[in-house]
Amino acid sequence: MYLAAAVLFILSALLYAAGNQEIGSFGADVCRYGGSFCDHPQYVLVAAGLAAAWGKFVSIR
Fold first, then answer.
1. Are 16 and 30 in contact (CB under 8 A)?
2. What is the pLDDT of residue 34?
3. Which contacts (CB < 8 Å, 24+ apart) does range 6-12 have?
4. Are 21 and 38 in contact (CB under 8 A)?
5. pLDDT of residue 46
6. Long-range contact pairs involving 15-22 (C-beta distance under 8 Å, separation at least 24)
7. pLDDT tens across 15-50, in order?
8. Dihedral over Cα of 46, 47, 48, 49: its sign
9. Angle value at C-alpha 43, between 49 and 19, nearest 5 degrees
10. CB count, 10 Å around CB of 59?
C-alpha cells in the first residue's frame, strides 16, 4: 500500500505541475486526459494520504 501511496503522491505532483503549465507541452497532454485532476490535484493527494493510512492500519509487524 505504501507503494500505491508513493505513486499517487508523485502523480499529484505531476498533475499540479501540469495544471500550472510548468512542464511544457507534456502538461497539455496530461491535462487533456485528466482535466478535473489538473484543476484539483488535491483529490489525488488525499487518495495518497488515505492509501498510506490504510497501509499503516493493515501492516503487520
1. no
2. 78
3. 6/48, 8/44, 8/45, 8/47, 8/48, 8/51, 9/45, 9/48, 11/44, 11/48, 12/41, 12/42, 12/44, 12/45, 12/48
4. no
5. 95
6. 15/41, 15/44, 16/41
7. 999 988 888 888 888 888 878 888 899 999 999 999
8. positive
9. 125
10. 9
Residue where the block lists cell 484543476:
39
Distances (CA, A) of 22 to 1, 6, 13, 48, 60: 29, 21, 11, 22, 40
pLDDT value of residue 42 = 93
